[in-house]
Amino acid sequence: MDEIERGMEETEQQLRHYRPVGPPPELRSRVVGGARPPRTSLWMWLPTSALAAAALILMIVSANARRGLAAEFAPPAENREAVANAVAAELGGDPAVRALVARLIELDEREGTFDQDTAARPEGSRHE
C-alpha cells in the first residue's frame, strides 16, 4: 500500500506544475454567438394560424349542421309513444316495462341507432 500511495503522491506533484488553460477569447464569442436562437417573424406562423382557425370554424359549422339535421329528422313524439306502447304490450304491458322501453328508445335516439320503421314492424315482416 505504501508503494501505491507514493505513486499517487508523485503523480499529484507532477500535475501541480500544470495550470488549466481556458479557451481562446475568439472561441468563446463564436460559441456564445451561435447559441442565440434565430429570430422568427410572425409571418411564419400565419399559415399555421389560418389552418387552425379554418379547422375550428369547420368544426363549429359541422356541429351546427349535425344538430339541425337531427332536429329536422327526429321522429315525432307521438310515434315514439306508439312504438313504446306496442313493444311494452308485447312484453306484458307492465308500466315498469313501458318505462324501460321508453328509456331504451330515448337512449337509441341519442346514439342515432333507433330505426322507427324497423321497430314498428312485426317480427316476421322485417325481411323484405
Radius of gyration: 40 Å
Tell me the total number of β-strands.
0
Distance between the termini: 100 Å
* Anisotropy-based shape: elongated
Uncertain stretches: 124-128
Describe the main β-sheet briefly: none
- Give the amount of beta strand, in percent: under 5%
Number of alpha- plus pi-helical segments: 6
Give me the secondary-structure category.
mainly alpha
How are helices and strands ordered from N to C? HHHHHH
On the 0 to 100 scale, the average pLDDT is 78
Portion of residues within helices = 55-70%
Describe the protein.
The chain has helices at residues 2-16, 25-34, 46-73, 77-90, 95-111, 116-120. The chain is an all-alpha fold and 128 residues long. Among the domains are: 45-74; 75-128, no CATH class. Helix 4 (77-90) crosses helix 5 (95-111). The longest helix has 28 residues, at 46-73. The protein is elongated.
In short:
The chain is an all-alpha fold and 128 residues long. The protein has helices at 2-16, 25-34, 46-73, 77-90, 95-111, 116-120. Among the domains are: 45-74; 75-128, no CATH class.
What topology emerges from the helices and strands here?
Layout: H1 2-16, H2 25-34, H3 46-73, H4 77-90, H5 95-111, H6 116-120
Question: Which features does this protein show?
Answer:
elongated; mainly alpha; single chain
